[in-house]
Give the backbone structure.
Amino acid sequence: MTTQNPESADVSTAQDNGHSEVLLSVSNLKMHFPITRGIILQRQVGSIKAVDGITFDLMRGETLGLVGESGCGKSTTGRAILQLYEPTAGEVVFEGQDLTEINSGELRRMRRRMQMIFQDPYASLNPRMTVGSIVGEPLEVHKIGGSRREQQQRVQELLEIVGLNPYFINRYPHEFSGGQRQRIGVARALAVNPSFIVCDEPISALDVSIQAQVINLLEDLQSEMGLTYLFIAHDLSVVRHISDRIAVMYLGKIVELADREVLYENPLHPYTQALLSAVPIPDPQVEKKRQRIILEGDVPSPAEPPTGCNFNTRCPQVMDICRQYEPSFADVGDGHRVACFLYDQVEALNEQGQTVAVSA
């Protein structure tokens, strides 16, 4: 039986980064996809726990990096926050409103304030629509911009903002490079003047030479427009550059969250330590002396996660308690949160009436 400390429902906050107003509050968010069997009379035989109870706050004007290996639930988290997927459980409070409780009409109104930049610039743009129609569609849907001529002028302004020639308005997506297509995706997201944007690995499909340009564009837009980003990525170097805080996911759960410099200088969770040990350091002498942490085994199936801590099957520092109980997502100081029994969580379990002993 998995037991979780109620303290895990506490909400983490940004520390010493100049952001104090909470824009988005996610509490115990879950996204489980049913597994069914049968062709005609389908019956549910299980569920894939893509996101399994995550909690965090996002401050207005900050960038929260969300990292983890492929399949850990990063993109699903972003889509569930925006209600592109209907969450199985949990709360998503955006600008004071719980998005999981409002009706479809109210949700549509709220979508003007939150947008998404998709991972694949080739698949996310309709090849049969011109750039003007792609960027202008949100204006028509939300009835923004007045007359058609005014909307067209707004589209040209948006193209210019993202670094594209406004006279490209009548061209089609196949006439652009990957980097230019992603800029079109950014312009589409900006069309409705959002305050919050989920960036779902926006540079992973681009050439390295283009990635820096897109990252610089996103930073400039944030500075000029006061945008708030949830930046999903697997490139830890990029995440460190653009993020104020970083959350590390493993098998549907956030295992560590901290200020970017704190996380890179003092990673606490064994999984975070393993991830950072794989990041190359541009100093041959330091790189030569550094010890890599190689994780054994494969990531368990999200349909059958292990009992206790999700990471216990691969953790080099696993203890008996890790196989029995789920660690709480506890604050170990200065907003640094970690879900690991290596950091004084046994006492909290004992207070719940669970007498536990720690042994390696």
Summary: The radius of gyration is 22 Å. Residues 208-225 form the longest helix (18 residues).
